[in-house]
Write a structure and sequence with these properties.
- This protein is α+β, with helices and mostly antiparallel strands.
- Helix content is 43%, strand content 12%.
- It has a five-stranded antiparallel β-sheet with strand order 2-1-5-4-3.
- The longest helix is centred in the middle third of the chain and has 19 residues, at 171-189.
- It starts with a helix and ends in an 8-residue tail after the last helix.
Length: 281
């Protein structure tokens, strides 16, 4: 059963503990309260202000598991706090670990401070969970996919459009890298894992995957420099730095260009152009 009083108090406390700068929002000159406003939290949680306000006022229907997960992410809760929130709302907490999609507050705080940099948070299967605005401008909205297609490695073998954003001379290496990475994760997580399921699907759907999978290659690591071919600004050579959250196996990928380089100038141009549909790969 939902604990309405406990849920309301917990939400108010967590909202009051967050500052605008903690979640990538401007503070503004006229702010009188140290915490976030209800409308700000509602926006972060992708829900109406009225709906969120009713939860803090011990009113309204019991929120769904999907809604609770959105609130937990919007409030930048830790895993323990997220689990507590689910129980207050009368639900069992989601799984932890590699299959979990709750992004830790540490990674979110860093991502929120990278609004002028292409960056994304991905799972160990290459499923994009969150992007900065310039990250969307670079690769398109990669978080919009559903099912197995959420994984870039899966799309690489099933959707030819997914390759357009990458330099053609790198395709052969990327094919090996995606197959190698999937094999390592499938072995690590076991036969019943999502990685093993994706491999089974690709063995049926892609002849190219069957060939490279048959090589049993492991240890093919991503290059530090990634070469993109953007439809608006052209070729880009970007350094990719990675920060790992070992508890959830999530990775924060940050893309930067060497100052003074042609890629740096084109990346600055891309920041001016803004988000533009590029076939989201």
């Amino acid at each position: 059963m939902i604990d309405r009083a406990g849920l309301a108090v917990f939400l108010r406390r967590r909202r009051g503990a967050l500052r605008p700068e903690d979640v990538g929002l401007p503070r503004g000159r006229r702010r009188r309260t140290g915490g976030l406003r209800r409308e700000e939290v509602a926006g972060l949680c992708h829900m109406s202000t009225d709906y969120y306000a009713r939860l803090e006022q011990e009113r309204g229907p019991r929120p769904s598991e999907q809604m609770v997960a959105s609130i937990a992410q919007g409030l930048h809760l830790s895993l323990d706090e997220r689990d507590h929130l689910f129980r207050l709302a009368g639900h069992n907490p989601p799984v932890r670990g590699a299959d979990g999609e709750h992004i830790g507050p540490g990674l979110l705080r860093i991502l929120d401070r990278l609004q002028d940099t292409p960056a994304e948070i991905v799972t160990e299967l290459g499923e994009t969970l969150r992007q900065t605005p310039l990250g969307v401008s670079l690769t398109g909205d990669a978080s919009r996919f559903t099912g197995p297609a959420r994984s870039l490695g899966y799309r690489w073998f099933t959707d030819p459009a997914s390759r357009r954003l990458y330099a053609p001379e790198d395709h052969a290496f990327l094919t090996r890298m995606f197959a190698s990475g999937l094999r390592e994760v499938a072995t690590l997580r076991g036969p019943g894992s999502r990685a093993a399921h994706y491999a089974d699907l690709l063995l049926v759907e892609s002849e190219e995957f069957r060939v490279v999978w048959g090589e049993h290659e492991v240890g093919v690591r991503p290059s530090e420099v990634k070469r993109f071919v953007h439809p608006e600004v052209g070729a880009l050579e970007l350094n990719c730095q990675m920060l790992l959250d070992p508890e959830q196996s999530h990775r924060l990928l940050v893309y930067t260009a060497t100052p003074g380089s042609e890629s740096h100038e084109r990346l600055q141009l891309l920041s001016v152009i803004g988000a533009h549909p590029v076939g989201a790969v």
